[in-house]
């Protein structure tokens, strides 16, 4: 692993992408609406706590807080990242009347109590985690979720049910391009692995293809993942 600060600096890719907040806004709005369709979702409760796990850019934090507010939600939000630099930038975009705490911590070992969160929102984190450490991350999401709580994320997930040679080739090429754009190690993530990780952690999972905003065109590999405790 890189030293945390350099790690974040190198993922500054997203911070420089102006289209990114529109994309995130749509993704968050869709995921929150889906989570809130469950009438017993703990996110409906007035004292709900939400964890933004591996926030990355300040734009992610601001967009997430705005989308919660748009849905009439005013939960206590914990913004967590392994890089102080990511937290510092996010601190600057939080308003005084918002209930936000910042946590410098590793998603593989969350310093948070069991069953205390209604929602864990994370975005594109699993493929940054080396494969051997992923089960610790997903297990900890499940551990900190209250019963009925949900995890929402979007990840680049390879279909690994008998891919053709051509599919294997294009997947490898896309992954190489992604590593180049982000400038950090990105590890392949297969659908069967995500299913196993969520099942082992006791999370019921849904996988949804993501489309290019406003079109019916599916974004290659990118999927929205939802899990419920
Ligand atoms: C998950 S992506 C964030 C994607 C996000 N939507 C954005 O706008 O950047 C990158 C962030 O994850 C953080 N990160 C990487 N590994 C982590 C870990 N083990 N625990 C917590 N945060 C981590 C990095 O420091 C970085 O800020």
């Amino acid at each position: 692993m890189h030293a945390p600060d350099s790690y974040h600096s190198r993922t500054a890719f997203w911070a420089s992408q102006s289209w990114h907040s529109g994309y995130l806004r749509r993704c968050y709005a869709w995921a929150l609406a889906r989570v809130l369709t469950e009438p017993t979702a703990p996110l409906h409760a007035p004292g709900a706590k939400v964890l933004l796990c591996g926030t990355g850019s300040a734009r992610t934090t601001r967009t997430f807080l705005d989308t919660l507010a748009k849905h009439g939600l005013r939960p206590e939000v914990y913004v967590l990242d392994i890089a102080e630099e990511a937290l510092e930038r996010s601190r600057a975009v939080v308003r005084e009347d918002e209930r936000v705490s910042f946590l410098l911590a590793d998603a593989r070992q969350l310093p948070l109590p069991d069953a205390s969160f209604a929602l864990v929102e994370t975005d594109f984190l699993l493929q940054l985690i080396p494969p051997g450490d992923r089960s610790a991350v997903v297990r900890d999401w499940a551990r900190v979720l209250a019963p009925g709580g949900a995890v929402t994320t979007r990840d680049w997930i390879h279909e690994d049910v008998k891919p053709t040679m051509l599919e294997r080739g294009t997947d490898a090429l896309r992954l190489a391009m992604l590593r180049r754009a982000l400038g950090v190690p990105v590890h392949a993530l297969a659908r069967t692995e995500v299913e196993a990780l969520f099942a082992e952690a006791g999370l019921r999972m849904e996988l949804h293809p993501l489309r290019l905003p406003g079109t019916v065109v599916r974004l290659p590999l990118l999927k929205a993942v939802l899990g419920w405790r």
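The chain has a mean pLDDT of 91. The chain has one domain: 4-228.
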